[in-house]
């Protein structure tokens, strides 16, 4: 199937071809026809599967189809959980909008209100926003969403993680009575998403789901290195980060403090490095991402602020210095490596407290993570036995490596392809 088979304007198709995209991805193939059909939609597809265009292309088509282009209050709205994601969506939207003589803009937190007031007064066709700031602007009386007949909630799962349930409902209440809502999520992990969909989508909303974690994991090589203690971890990290195979690396840590700590360690090695965490101001965050994108940084150390959505094309390696609590967060982190179909590597340095998470991730991926050892830095302690729920500990996993490597059956079932009730 090519983009030509989708019911999109020629102008729009032309733009896609110029971008070098010929074939829609699975989620685009499934979502676009349903959206063009006017349906509400709950769509799930893994990180890196092309969700942005899956809702932007029909958004642009929607804008082209509407006869009156007043261009003052936005006619399409995309909500993103973080400023970085909003900026990234805008980056994808901008060239397409320009080619179609449409105007797009963003309003996000962490930047002055004045400019945004002006922006809203000048008007736009497509608005990309974070929910919090959008509501603030509404309170000031600057926002008019009465013509926003096309609304997207991107990264719905992340929205819920961040507690945006009520803000999203508040934004929805600002939309005109007749509007189309599209919800995109990387996972359907929690019932909360289904509940949110129940609250925000029409009862006959379509559902599409592109499975599965493995779709992301396919071209990414995963390996774990066991660390005996902090000193061992540091030695392993220094060896890994100096690997000449690294084009650019994203290093994940658990806290702001650790970001600062590890940035200093990398810099000491003479490697260009900076950090990214949620408590940084917007200017700094943007700058560091820009520098990474332009190749001025080789390494970015980040908290999970950076695990979702950010499309940093050149990231070749992801290094986890802690493992996340939730397996799907691991998948999101891994999704930062090897974008655009190129191959990527994820190395996780795992200390004893983090070890139980390995099994969880393996079950989620339905794939064993390769154990990797560095010469001279082999772990002294044996691998802890896998933790299995609701089962008596078996005979201690001698040669525990094998035992822990064996992945249990996949836990996830594909979401039913049916209309939600
Ligand atoms: P997601 O939101 O699902 O994580 P993105 O929308 O950020 O994924 O897209 C991931 C990458 O895939 C981006 O680099 C994007 O340019 C690329 N991409 C999107 N659609 C296509 C397509 N049809 N063909 C080739 N590459 C695509
Ligand atoms: Mg996305």
Question: Please, could you describe this protein's structure?
Answer:
- This protein is an alpha/beta fold and 421 residues long.
- The strands form two sheets. Strands 3-4-2-5-6-1-7 form a seven-stranded parallel sheet.
- It is built from 16 helices and 14 strands.
- 39% of the residues lie in helices and 15% in strands.
- The two termini are 31 Å apart.
- The relative contact order is 0.12.
- It folds into two domains: 3-211, P-loop containing nucleotide triphosphate hydrolases (Rossmann fold); 217-371, Rossmann fold (3-Layer(aba) Sandwich), CATH 3.40.50.
- Helix 14 (327-334) links the parallel strand 12 and strand 13 (344-350).
- Residues 213-218 and 391-421 have low confidence and may be disordered.
- Adenosine-5'-diphosphate (ADP) is lined by residues 21, 23-25, 28, 45, 47-53, 309, 311, 339-340.
CATH class of the largest domain: Alpha Beta
- Please report the distance between the alpha carbons of the first and last residues: 31 Å
Whole-number count of domains: 2
Residue share in β-strands? 15-25%
- Give the % helix: 25-40%
Q: CATH homologous superfamily of the largest domain? A: P-loop containing nucleotide triphosphate hydrolases
Taking the sheet with the most strands, its summary is: 7 strands, parallel
Task: Please give the CATH architecture of the largest domain.
Answer: 3-Layer(aba) Sandwich
Lateral arrangement of strands in the main beta sheet: 3-4-2-5-6-1-7
Uncertain runs are 213-218, 391-421
Order of helices and strands: HHEHEHEHEHEHHEHEHEHEHEHEEHEHEH
User: What's the gyration radius in Å?
Assistant: 22 Å
Number of helices, where a helix is a run of at least 4 consecutive DSSP H or I residues: 16
């Amino acid at each position: 199937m090519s983009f030509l088979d989708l019911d999109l304007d020629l102008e729009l198709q032309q733009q896609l071809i110029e971008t070098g995209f010929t074939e829609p991805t699975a989620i685009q193939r499934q979502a676009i026809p349903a959206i063009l059909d006017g349906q509400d939609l709950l769509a799930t597809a893994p990180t890196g599967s092309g969700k942005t265009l899956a809702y932007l292309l029909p958004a642009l088509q929607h804008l082209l189809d509407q006869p009156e282009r007043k261009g003052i209050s936005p006619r399409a709205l995309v909500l993103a959980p973080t400023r970085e994601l909003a900026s990234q969506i805008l980056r994808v939207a901008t060239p397409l909008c320009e080619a179609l003589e449409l105007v797009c803009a963003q309003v996000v937190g962490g930047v002055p209100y004045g400019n945004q007031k002006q922006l809203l007064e000048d008007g736009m066709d497509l608005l990309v926003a974070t929910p919090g700031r959008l509501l603030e602007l509404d309170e000031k009386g600057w926002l008019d969403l009465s013509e926003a007949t096309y609304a997207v909630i991107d990264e719905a799962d992340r929205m819920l993680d961040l507690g945006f349930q009520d803000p999203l409902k508040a934004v929805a209440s600002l939309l005109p009575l007749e509007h189309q809502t599209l919800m995109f999520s990387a996972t359907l992990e929690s019932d909360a998403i289904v509940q949110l969909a129940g609250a925000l989508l029409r009862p006959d909303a379509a559902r599409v789901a592109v499975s599965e974690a493995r779709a992301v994991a396919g071209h990414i090589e995963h390996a774990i290195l066991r660390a005996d203690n902090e000193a061992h971890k540091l030695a392993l990290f220094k060896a890994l980060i100096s690997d000449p195979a690294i084009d650019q690396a994203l290093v994940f840590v658990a806290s702001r403090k650790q970001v600062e700590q590890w940035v200093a360690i990398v810099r000491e090695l003479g490697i260009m490095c900076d950090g990214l965490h949620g408590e940084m101001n917007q200017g700094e965050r943007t700058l560091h991402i820009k520098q990474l994108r332009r190749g001025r940084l080789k390494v970015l150390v980040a908290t999970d602020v950076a695990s979702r959505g950010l499309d940093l094309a050149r990231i070749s390696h992801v290094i986890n210095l802690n493992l996340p609590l939730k397996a799907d967060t691991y998948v999101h982190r891994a999704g930062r490596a090897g974008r655009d179909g190129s191959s990527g590597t994820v190395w996780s340095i795992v200390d004893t407290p983090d070890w139980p998470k390995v099994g969880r991730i393996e079950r989620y991926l339905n794939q064993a993570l390769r154990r990797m050892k560095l010469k001279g830095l082999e772990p002294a302690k044996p691998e802890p036995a896998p933790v299995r729920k609701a089962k008596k500990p078996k005979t201690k996993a001698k040669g525990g490596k094998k035992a822990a490597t064996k992945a249990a059956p996949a836990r996830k079932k594909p979401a039913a392809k049916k209309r939600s009730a």
